[in-house]
Amino acid sequence: MRSNNRWSDRTVAALAVLIVAAVQFTVADTPEAAAETSARTWLGLIDTGAYAKSWDTAAKYFRNSMAQSQWVSRISAVRAPLGALKSRRLMSARFERSLPGAPDGEYVIVQFSSSFEHKGEATETVTPMRDPDGQWRVSGYFIR
């Protein structure tokens, strides 16, 4: 039996799938989403104590600002006393083209509300930047 409806069930279902896929692609394709993914991956290295590897995978700007040994010394002094990560929740991600003391470029300031074994509440600010090769890599990290 043929439907009098202008749109068939298959057509409506296909359109719904395309709309959902387009929305998901658009959200995942934003600078904020890409930078958040980069920040979380990088923080995973910090969380496991892979401080030298975090320097290796950071933005060129970050690596040019200090030697790997300096970074390892600084980050271990800050993170080790906090103990293990208990939780991390995204608070915000804001795209910027200009930051104080940094060259103009594409940055996302990502803030997380975090909890550690020895510090119940902390704010981690991670700033990925788009490197010349198009990849988002961390250019700054602060914890308070």
Task: Present the secondary structure layout.
Layout: H1 9-28, H2 31-47, H3 51-56, H4 60-65, H5 68-79, E1 85-96, E2 107-116, E3 119-130, E4 136-143
Antiparallel strand pairs: 1-2, 2-3, 3-4
Task: Write a brief caption for the model.
The protein is 42% helix and 29% strand.
Q: What number of domains?
A: 1
Contiguous low-pLDDT stretches (5 residues minimum) are 11-18, 20-27
The average pLDDT is 87
Largest sheet: 4 strands, antiparallel
Rounded Rg: 21 Å
Number of helices: 5
Strand content: 25-35%
- Please trace the helix and strand order, writing H or E for each element: HHHHHEEEE
Strands, total number:
4
Please characterize this protein's 3D structure.
The chain has a four-stranded antiparallel sheet with strand order 1-2-3-4. The protein is globular. With 144 residues, the protein is of the alpha+beta class. It has five helices and four strands. The protein has helices at residues 9-28, 31-47, 51-56, 60-65, 68-79; strands spanning 85-96, 107-116, 119-130, 136-143. The protein has a single domain (30-143), classed as NTF2-like, domain 1 (Nuclear Transport Factor 2, Chain: A), CATH 3.10.450. A hairpin with a 5-residue loop joins strand 3 (119-130) and strand 4.
Give structural attributes:
globular, Nuclear Transport Factor 2, Chain: A, single chain, 144 residues
